[in-house]
User: Fold these one by one.
Assistant:
Number 1:
Amino acid sequence: MDVLAIVAHPDDAEIFCGGTLAKHAARGDDVTVAYMTRGEFGGFDTTEAALAETREAEARRAASVLGADVTFLDFKDGRITYSLENRLELVECIREHAPDIVLTHFADDMHPDHRATSRLVTDAYYMVSLPLLESEHPPCDPRNVYYFGKPTSSFDPTVIVDVTDHQETKEEAALEHESQIAWLEEHGGIDAEFSDFVESMRADAHTLGRQAGVTYAEGFTRLHETTVDFLD
Amino acid sequence: MDVLAIVAHPDDAEIFCGGTLAKHAARGDDVTVAYMTRGEFGGFDTTEAALAETREAEARRAASVLGADVTFLDFKDGRITYSLENRLELVECIREHAPDIVLTHFADDMHPDHRATSRLVTDAYYMVSLPLLESEHPPCDPRNVYYFGKPTSSFDPTVIVDVTDHQETKEEAALEHESQIAWLEEHGGIDAEFSDFVESMRADAHTLGRQAGVTYAEGFTRLHETTVDFLD
Amino acid sequence: MDVLAIVAHPDDAEIFCGGTLAKHAARGDDVTVAYMTRGEFGGFDTTEAALAETREAEARRAASVLGADVTFLDFKDGRITYSLENRLELVECIREHAPDIVLTHFADDMHPDHRATSRLVTDAYYMVSLPLLESEHPPCDPRNVYYFGKPTSSFDPTVIVDVTDHQETKEEAALEHESQIAWLEEHGGIDAEFSDFVESMRADAHTLGRQAGVTYAEGFTRLHETTVDFLD
Amino acid sequence: MDVLAIVAHPDDAEIFCGGTLAKHAARGDDVTVAYMTRGEFGGFDTTEAALAETREAEARRAASVLGADVTFLDFKDGRITYSLENRLELVECIREHAPDIVLTHFADDMHPDHRATSRLVTDAYYMVSLPLLESEHPPCDPRNVYYFGKPTSSFDPTVIVDVTDHQETKEEAALEHESQIAWLEEHGGIDAEFSDFVESMRADAHTLGRQAGVTYAEGFTRLHETTVDFLD
Amino acid sequence: MDVLAIVAHPDDAEIFCGGTLAKHAARGDDVTVAYMTRGEFGGFDTTEAALAETREAEARRAASVLGADVTFLDFKDGRITYSLENRLELVECIREHAPDIVLTHFADDMHPDHRATSRLVTDAYYMVSLPLLESEHPPCDPRNVYYFGKPTSSFDPTVIVDVTDHQETKEEAALEHESQIAWLEEHGGIDAEFSDFVESMRADAHTLGRQAGVTYAEGFTRLHETTVDFLD
Amino acid sequence: MDVLAIVAHPDDAEIFCGGTLAKHAARGDDVTVAYMTRGEFGGFDTTEAALAETREAEARRAASVLGADVTFLDFKDGRITYSLENRLELVECIREHAPDIVLTHFADDMHPDHRATSRLVTDAYYMVSLPLLESEHPPCDPRNVYYFGKPTSSFDPTVIVDVTDHQETKEEAALEHESQIAWLEEHGGIDAEFSDFVESMRADAHTLGRQAGVTYAEGFTRLHETTVDFLD
């Protein structure tokens, strides 16, 4: 099975779906993380170029911990726009990897880059299978798109993945984002949102997991509903 | 696996979850339908006693088509009340069957018997596992409660079961409720709701199924969220 | 009364509001369908130009069955963008027809062309009546915009039109989209979504209609609430 | 057409649906208000018996202004319970009047008497048409139940009645509840909720009406969806 | 200021609002916890009577850590019913304490005792201020009712209290429920819900707090909206 | 404290948040209203240029009544687009004023200018604090964004400001928009929406206020949740 996660910034893969990616990789699935940007706006006392380099390296190390391949799409941090041109770039990206499923941000996430990424991926999904849309790679037909977000009231997951056995890997991967941990703990979001980066991730996963009878979990919605064979 | 469906009236099992029950039965699960009442109010030109007899016989034949055992709980049609005494009767019923999962109506169904049944089952679920609650049968510990309803805006299923291969069985079972088909097509609900009993069931199943990529489906919500091992 | 439906692709008029358009036409209203695109991406083993020609012809035949006039707006299938320029084109289109009401897709439809069309129409609606906005046609003042979608959980109609007497016309019109039926049944949406094009439309209309006491219905939301004179 | 409004307390008819009742009465419909209680708890420096007498007289005068008949059901203010016995009393009440439509409180109103009334009426509605349910009056078959509430976020009306021409009558009727105006302005609800009884009613009707293009309106939801013949 | 929390079982005060109660107590407010039951069903290898004694003692120690007084209302665990008689008992309880605000469970909590408590308190709230309702204590007029629940999708708090400085006290109080910790970690709720009692409480408080810029928080909804003097 | 309201058109400040701005100004806060456009499309028998001049003068007088400074951002009425370029202009505007809080339209307002303004402000908010984003003014760090809308079902405020003592000022300021009152009462929105401009504003404020125990109020949602120190 081929899994493609398309995320806005280097640490989004770990924060939102790192346990799920690690779990799929661990059973032998091909997992790829496509980074829209290198997160080159997320720092101070540096330049965009230098930070891009640092964060790309961190992203590669983090993905390696998860067992995922990486690719960088060269959009600009804080400046991803919802345009037809960008949509067609994502069509190319998805066709190149021809995944079974795609993971990305949910559409109502407040961060402008997350929102734009979500909509671009959904729109591209509706085009990748069209034979008459010509591009470098042939059409493909992913089964579904899964959306992730933080366990807050505006994101209400309906698909919950047990990541208990992969929480440690997820946290280990997250710790590779050294430049961001300093930045987030000082600056990121509202005051105490990332006062302790790993404790935050663990609390979210535990709060969500307990509601479903496991210790740690990650949550998703999906574009198409799917069926189960039996109630369990 | 033991499946226990607790429904208010004889035809509710077929209308709401007949395909799912048939599917579980077909793979060898023990499936039981507990009827709160015999639906003895659903007719004319007869008596409650006579209708109860007719409908019990129809329910037995329908359940037989689905591959399910039946039990009758002797509540009164149109008069199920939400009382502690009734809740304790349901504790006894669930403990007697010690199912892995329980199926019942969703709590916001408008029909008063459906509503009362739903709440009695949910409340009983919280008590069946308590060692200090003494009763005829020992404590048991079902994994979850699943709720069914019609595919309308006030019931939004999050668990969808593919019943394509069992739709025919479901319809065949539904047709055993001969006394009700005449009654529903003449009287039931609002004007055209059951103008054609089987076509109604098929339209609902097809509308729901297509949203999830299959021909026919039934939908449920659940008391506890559960996890999946992998995204699919 | 003048009714203007603005739809993204040739078969959207029939799928979403064909019964309502046929009913309005049958009582003598002037009904026009404006097609944003010719749906020229919806096929294989052909070219965009050839498919556009085929589908325009099908759309003309289908609209003729409904009793509607047609106009084509020359946007590109799969590539409708939400731009000020496109909004102004829709201002011109609406002013040209000066309808009493406008029908279009609902804003949260997942298909990118449907979403863009919906927002462009709503935004244009706020501008068509402004005297200071100069254009080829004079200002006009439609009473309301009605939005359509599929009867799924994310589209919850509050205005339901009884189309029982026009369901046959609707299906007949839909069957004119020959090129699409082959395409949809093989490719369209998720697996079984259009396994049988007409059965799908009929199941949706029956599921929705029965909730309101009729055999077949179509559902809408509206931009402005309206009043009734009496409860019925 | 026969309209039956079943309200918990004497002034509820005017507050929630007085304009609609006046409008139906004005066109010649038979309108009846059934008061569950006489509101005999809503005062001070008096007794329940004395207050019941005062408020019954006020209710009769107010209903007379609206053009409605009245009946009193003899439940106790603040103590309406959701029991099978009470439901059967409402079955009798509805069968006695055999209305075309029934109006009552919405189920999630916070006031315990309003909630109980709403549920008792809905449950009774499901029983009034059953031939096998014997009672003093013969079965009847109202078309629908309409629910009213205050225009707050938890009550979201989907049926809006233009009462502009009857707002004056509504306010005149409301002013008959002299004992309540003193009580409500001093005590009722939270601090400023009824600081000026008539201004409150007018603000609510104006806020709701303007959203639908009229000066004053009242809002309802309904048990069954209904259809319209044409979009307007 | 007088704060009265009415909870179903001994440990509910700590789980749901322990930090808030500790914070109010710390600034000198009079805080009382009224326990509907002694939680005498929550154990094994014991009797209801013995467990009631154990848990009352634990509740007293826990409340003492929070700085709260306690009272026991003598309802039966697992068997709180929603009756007029029970409502009047809560009227008496609230009038006796004459609090400024009341805290209790939210109405849609799934646990039957929590649901019944919530509705009984809300209904009692509407009666405590009525002069004509005679009882042992005089009428009182609490300003508002606050509702608590777990930070899951069905409970969406709109009032968030920063309890960072009282999280330690809350956890210390929770640890007094020794008999429950063993019981919950072995039996309580679904599998991993309380695998580690204190870690669970901390994760919930951290997940909720971070969304509002603090380390630990508790969340509430309220019966009446209130105003702020200024935006902050 | 510095308060910055960013509104699409000259009269939006008074309609949506005039009482709140007046209240903050009255206690000595620095309040600025930034007008995206001069509302130069809102008239007839004039030109855009002439109307812009008239409305700018009216806006200055109205803001003066509220006690607020003004700035004009030179976007075009009816043509505000959601572009990266426009977002960066708003970054500059916010950095220039370095406010503690920002007020703007809510994202789901139907008016296209209101929607675009809302999203541009939210997106800009995520960028103003980034050190690596260079611009004319230095980074700043507003605490929160507050969103306003009309008290309809699609806007459900969670922060309510008591403006009773400033309602008169708000209405006085609104009356400065002479050119708009004529226009709105004749043309604006749907038929009776602004039949009496001041009565409309007063009805909305009274309907909202009474729900929270005050005479007049305005309502907001916010980007980040915030905490309270104590329940009140």
Number 2:
Amino acid sequence: MYIKDLSKYEGQEVTLRGWASNRRSSKGLEFVILRDGTGFCQCIVDANQVSPAVFEKAGKLKLESSFSLKGKVVKDERQIGGYEVHVSELEIYQIAEEYPIAKKEHGVDFLTDNRHLWLRSSRQWAIMKIRNRIIYSIHQFFQENEFVEMDAPIFTGNACEGTTNLFETNYFDETAYLSQSGQLYGEAMAMAMGRIYTFGPTFRAEKSKTRRHLTEFWMIEPEMAFFDIFDNMDLIEQFLRRVVSDVLRDCKNELEIIGRDTSVLQNITKPFPRLTYDEAVRIIKGEQDVNGKNSIKELETELASVLASIDEHKKEIAEREEKIKTPGMKKGEIGFNQSKIDKLKQELADLEEQARNIPQWLNSARNFTYGNDLGGSDETVITRLFDVPIMVYNWPHAVKAFYLKRDPDDNRFARGVDVLAPEGYGEIVGGGERETNEQMLREKITEHELPMEAFEWYLDLRKYGSVPHAGFGLGLERLVTWICKLPHVRESIPFPRMMGRLLP
Amino acid sequence: MYIKDLSKYEGQEVTLRGWASNRRSSKGLEFVILRDGTGFCQCIVDANQVSPAVFEKAGKLKLESSFSLKGKVVKDERQIGGYEVHVSELEIYQIAEEYPIAKKEHGVDFLTDNRHLWLRSSRQWAIMKIRNRIIYSIHQFFQENEFVEMDAPIFTGNACEGTTNLFETNYFDETAYLSQSGQLYGEAMAMAMGRIYTFGPTFRAEKSKTRRHLTEFWMIEPEMAFFDIFDNMDLIEQFLRRVVSDVLRDCKNELEIIGRDTSVLQNITKPFPRLTYDEAVRIIKGEQDVNGKNSIKELETELASVLASIDEHKKEIAEREEKIKTPGMKKGEIGFNQSKIDKLKQELADLEEQARNIPQWLNSARNFTYGNDLGGSDETVITRLFDVPIMVYNWPHAVKAFYLKRDPDDNRFARGVDVLAPEGYGEIVGGGERETNEQMLREKITEHELPMEAFEWYLDLRKYGSVPHAGFGLGLERLVTWICKLPHVRESIPFPRMMGRLLP
């Protein structure tokens, strides 16, 4: 019997087991929030309705103590989930020690050090439930479309895009790299099975500590024989639409808990704009408006408004700090003002970060050099102008991986496509059509200074029945981060791994 | 349009694309076996029905050449899949170079060196389709039962069962181990989400080259709050029953291609015998019969029969080798005898391997020391007596991991459970109920000489709302190997990694 099923038992007696995620006492009543992994539920222990022993046990429940209870399910619209339980019996498994994560705000380092406990908070619980729905939706989409799940190896003797940023290990006195993409193996598997997808962890030894990077993250990499770049874009669009729609339908409660405004997600049913690299560059540089917006003007306007808001915040903080010095002010009023000050200071910190970021974005947008890859700032600038994922395709071939097909219509470009999530999130998918010509690949491998002998097996795919094919890679955590609108990718995975972060 | 859908298009004109997996010519006809990843289909090009250009193109198709064709779907019960295509048009993508994997028998090292191509053979294709069905069935089972998929980290600062056999990497000047189990993280996640499962790769630097070991393999590790060992065994049984049933229902064609006798798999609906360690030991040592069989007598009888068969094989080989020396014997007859000889020699090699193995099994069964863990030979001995997976539980605590709960009824035992696949396959699942007492765990960690500080976060789970819980780990490749009855685990994964095997 689980909390998620309470609605089926209205008016009936049920048994629940779990942990106390909160408790407050009030005039012969104990209000305990029980969490059991499937949800959260208010349980009321009334001294007039239970034995003194049960009431006493309820009063002992410290945060995260484990217990079971019996009680009657009562509808109450005000509760999360819509039900509460009026307790008749209660048994304790364990009274917890003093729980380190109290209700007050903690720094993110402290919370990450306690990730094994932080996962129990309602917000992290909701994110993990959404992550789970996304994962299963991905499997459902590909399986229902008869793709074959195939696992690419993690240990590789060859490095897909060079050995920079690769972790390595001693593999019985050989050097093995930890895969940063199953791409090349995906191609071999597509030649055997037609349409495949991989779903596994990938590794990058990124020294940068950004809100977008993990050293260990999960990738989904479909690869399809007889697909060109346009078939590929159609598939990406269907795929993302399906996943986001499943989350919207099945995770309403979780999205509400994390406070996600779902209106942008609802746009997923709209066609995804497809921009060539050339168009994307014009938009970033402010040479072309989009959706009635100009990138440079938007940023300038926003910067002005941020700066004004900073002044207002500083002024109000100063005023309130002055105010609470007033002699004889009541404790309650001081507390009220102090909590306002704390909130204002937190907002101020966010605003000041924006005030630092926006000039950088402006600078990188104004000075973007045609021919370069898009950086994180450029992705932020362009995706803030959209309310739906955009696809940027036909990239200058020099900035993309060696295995992308040269555009037959214009030799300067490669048939790659990046999908950028809106609201400033940036790249979630990278993919493209693959080069089918063995000689072209050999030239590219030489040009990228990669060791030819490690790619001989891959080149075999062009010797024995080369066919047009395409595929893409989706970064799971980046998708979760965008769908949940998280400030940092670290909250999108149960146990994040970043530079300097190996525990718990 | 794919081969798997041909039955829906009987009598109609279709377009197919793929590779030539075989071709033979006969009196104005070309018979080409097309494979497209979804299946195999005979396509007939009749010189009287197509243009000379099309017939000429068909004649050029070397093995694994890529092409598309148009043709009419015609029912033919004799064909795999039940349909063939009468070709009207044919276009070549690429004539393949001389394909290295011909129809003749190759050594397994050669095939593994060419794994990227070997995957195209019908047997490997079928195994991969079954593997895919197993993977999705696992997700379906857990998702339908409302488990939350949660990923344990691959990089860990602490080692679950000691650092022997672990791969390590330089992680920004710290040492990170590659996970050999997500177990401990699974427990933390179950305390947050109730019932979870992980599905990811795990790594063991096993120096042994056995038919059961890979260095990189996929594990599924469910963990359930409020489960004891008996709930756990019930779940394992339901779970394996579901997966095998799905394969039997959905992979008939693939099981037929690999020649799997499915009668043993059908037994999956029977209850799984649950033996204590004590009973298992008596059965292995031949002190207790099971299913009317005695382990020692069975092995002795089999050894005698293998030795007799070896003699017969040797005799027949000698006779035939003598025979083909007969002067004037026709080429056809020599060829016929030579292929018989080749086949007999292959069988002889298998028999000789058995003649080497059985005495070892006998020896290890007869001399098994009560209190030891079961070795590979012991698992082989006991599971050859069953036609359904068996569960062995209540193990001597000293041979099992530190985190297993001590049996409250008998302190000598730990509440672990191993599931052994029948037909000699052995362990596919290991699991058990977890110790809930912090002090007991600290003692065990000390006893196992593990670094206590690396486990402090894990011990937190016993401080903050400790509850009864249990879980298990399933080795995906071992399950695939048993279901497909493969001689070696290496065929159960797209790109196997073993000692000395890092490419392709």
Number 3:
Amino acid sequence: MINFETTPERYKHWKLTVDGAVATLSMDVQEDATLGEGYKLKLNSYDLGVDIELADAVERLRFEHPEVRAVVITSLKPRIFCAGANIYMLGTSSHSFKVNFCKFTNETRCAIEDASANSGQRYIAALNGTASGGGYELAIACDEIYLVDDGNSAVSLPEVPLLGVLPGTGGLTRLVDKRKVRRDRADVFSTLAEGLKGKRAKEWGLIDDYFPTSKFQESIAARVKSAAESGAQSKDARGIKLHPLQVEASNDGREYKYVSLKINREGRYADLTMRGPESDLPTDVEEIEKLGDAYWPLQAYRELSDALLHLRINELETGLVCLRTEGNIADVLAVDETLAANKDHWLGREIILHMARTLRRLDLTAKSFFALIEPGSCFAGNLLELALSADRTYMLNNPDEKVELATSALNKGALPMSNGLTRLGSRFLAEPGRVDEVLKHNGTFDTEEAEEAGLVTFAPDDLDWDDEIRVAIEERTSLSPDALTGMEASLRFAGPETLDTKIYGRLTAWQNWIFQRPNAVGPQGALTNYGKPTQAQFDFKRT
Amino acid sequence: MINFETTPERYKHWKLTVDGAVATLSMDVQEDATLGEGYKLKLNSYDLGVDIELADAVERLRFEHPEVRAVVITSLKPRIFCAGANIYMLGTSSHSFKVNFCKFTNETRCAIEDASANSGQRYIAALNGTASGGGYELAIACDEIYLVDDGNSAVSLPEVPLLGVLPGTGGLTRLVDKRKVRRDRADVFSTLAEGLKGKRAKEWGLIDDYFPTSKFQESIAARVKSAAESGAQSKDARGIKLHPLQVEASNDGREYKYVSLKINREGRYADLTMRGPESDLPTDVEEIEKLGDAYWPLQAYRELSDALLHLRINELETGLVCLRTEGNIADVLAVDETLAANKDHWLGREIILHMARTLRRLDLTAKSFFALIEPGSCFAGNLLELALSADRTYMLNNPDEKVELATSALNKGALPMSNGLTRLGSRFLAEPGRVDEVLKHNGTFDTEEAEEAGLVTFAPDDLDWDDEIRVAIEERTSLSPDALTGMEASLRFAGPETLDTKIYGRLTAWQNWIFQRPNAVGPQGALTNYGKPTQAQFDFKRT
């Protein structure tokens, strides 16, 4: 079982140092400290274990070091920045592991861009050696890229020419959509195994600048100083500590303080319940800082994020997740009110941004989600987003028992989907006026009001409820898991496209396709044959 | 070898009638008139042969019947509109055929939407019986959908629940992005094998209205009358006849009047040369009407379109196409000037729109394209788009021989890509100012000017030219064809996304992935097992 939690004290592959407004994340991958067996992490190549540490560091910098305004990513290995995802690891991994590995590394890179865009932490890639494949993709997720000019170091995306697969971590999309490299140059670069060195790499827009070895450190330092000084962060913000999550793991699921995950292995579905906040939570931001990561919205969503990652990687046969909530609507709304009032305070902002990332992680999870809204639930405000994220929503219609939904200020735009829209906006593309109607609705929605407003898919009465839910679960879990993944990816993100949706929707789908093809993974495939004396043999039929 | 040319007199599956401003396209698929062997086209299901006729009819209506303002698509079979793509045909086809089949049917549906948006021909789907799968996807490509309410007829997308694949012709994208059906309802609809009948189908936005059997014909007639009266077309436009293309086909290629296609089978590449226009072409639109489909821009692009379809379906092992032109730049520019001056005349408009569709067909062809710009070439105006469509462009730099490029008014927006941008706009996303600079450039571009302007990738001199081109071709054709397809799909369409790019980029990629998966096409897969007494067996691991 893969564990997604770590702390800087336990990092094996990265060193995180913080000096005032500048953090440095140095990659120094330990060859033998692999997550799986049968490969060595040479030349700063990475596996999921390396990326779990990077993701942890990026997250931690926002909560523990809000004073940081520039983050330098560099390497402690001479002449090599990072060689990308380890090929032998990929070559020996199952299709589903490869796909989930790429999804996680994509989320880490999008989290870097999110930190830069929303938390004023500017990322600077200091390429003290060659950055190839995923190494260059890590660099291109940063705001600025500087390459050493030592006559040897280059940036490259050698996946197509060497491995017969795509750069799997957003590289192609970021080339033409983020850095807006001319498409013919992107074509040449992406088929050139050896990549490009400083001068031409800069000319083509692949890097921002290059410096000779003797001036590399001082040039980076000057750039970092300028970035740190121009950052928008408040200097006197003091961070909070992110403690390890307390979780009781068993064969049947995981029990956190606010999240309960129960796996029904025979039925191939899971019940995921989020418990709402206590009613006596502080509203003052200084008290919240003291509460730190025990504050409900942070702890509950950290637990949710961990549960989702666990489901993705460790519970492959679980095809459907039933989302439930338990608690008091007023208490959830009180938390949202506090957060909305403190959205300009660094901690309020970071908690909201973390909720938004976690909800996007849910949107991007290749499982079906049904939200089940029953008595005692609290799908309100931020938790209403769970219901709006679900592929379907069932709400009990029983005049004898109160079942309610409610909106809060957080449903108005603080928790955007990958497509840039709110979940209400995505839901009501055909009738945008409904979004305002829902947000202006007075008080809670009972079942009939929720159905009328278009917030739920079905509202069975208490006589039908058990049967209807049972049949819906059975039907869903009987369908082809592949067809469902493709269908959900197509239906969840209507409306505008962004860099994120292009990476997860378009690029990922092509990569998944190629990861299935004999030309990559067959006995004669390029990925399979990498590093072997035999050459890849292709079926040259173009598809 | 599959032939993409046909005429209404030879249609086996469709009847096309035109009555004033109203055309009716009636589907009446002949079970035994299949393109391949081993299946029967029951229940108005279709194979590529059926769709080739539909594509021909849609195209012909624009050129031969510009007076038509409403096109009714309906069926001559009782109680059935169309059952979609034939499952047994799909089940027995190769992966590459399935993918190319879906691409062609997608282009046909996009052509329907193009006719509606740009030629004022409004498409009305009169569903006189059940429309399932590709049948409903054909309907949803129309502007309006009406369903008979006979207690039985429904619309449905049963691909996911019955076949373990996606609706392959844009259905999912059009559900949520064109008709903006609420995503939870789209989820329910797309997993419901039996689909939805009139009342709920209308409530959910899947159809526009439903009428009882007794009132169906008159209700459709009323709707069609209103559409025909409100159309924007000029009543007195008289069409021109589209004659069969004259082509000399051999094992080594195809020779048309203006297009020459030579297959280098050993090298796995093709040379495609377009010859420019004669210098004495008319500039008066009435003379052009008399010239009809022999007018260079129409004939040359019809030939190009046919050559591209041939390459896709019949020449699978050809991985790279070298694009060349031969002719006089001034003559090409003269044609563009005539077209631009007559863009508001129905024929000028249709010729330009046809060029645009053909160039998009090139963009969407899963082969690499290199444009080779040599002495005697005429990459100007509309033909410059060929160079801008290419993945790379090589232009000879030889002071002793004149090699030139030129722009025309048609490069300014008349020939948009699927992403809605001009090819110049897509090329210069990073420096949009360059588009204007290029368009305002005085006269032709010689090689150095073209390179300076960013219009070409490489400009080798005459000493290097032969070797550089040879090596580039050899390198390109040695790479994994799958990785190249995914790479090109990712690099060609930067910038905004549209319904079209979502369909070709995102949905197609997911479908291609699923078309590879054992859950669909393995011995126990749902597609393989459809109609057999055995049930599909799934590997339930979610990916």
